[in-house]
Specification:
By secondary structure, the protein is of the alpha+beta class. It starts with a helix and ends in a 6-residue tail after the last strand. It has a two-stranded antiparallel ribbon with strand order 1-2. Helix content is 17%, strand content 14%.
Length: 70
């Protein structure tokens, strides 16, 4: 659980750079760019994950800068 996040981030960033095969401007597809060229930069540069250590509202923590569950 949670191990697919790095793959999703890579795919999304390729989409934003215009490299996704369905949105790269080749073979009649539209060219999509979300990398500061024609639109705001939407690439994911930082990430993190939520951890819950119990059931109360005060048991949820966000850990920034890591995709590793150790």
């Amino acid at each position: 659980m949670g191990r697919e996040i790095s793959t999703v981030v890579e795919e999304f960033n390729e989409f934003c750079k215009g490299n996704h095969p369905c949105f790269n401007g080749e073979l009649g597809t539209h060219k999509v760019l979300f990398n500061e060229t024609k639109a705001p930069d939407l690439r994911i540069k930082n990430s993190g994950m939520f951890y819950r250590f119990g059931t109360g509202d005060d048991s949820l923590f966000f850990v920034a800068g890591s995709l590793d569950r150790t």
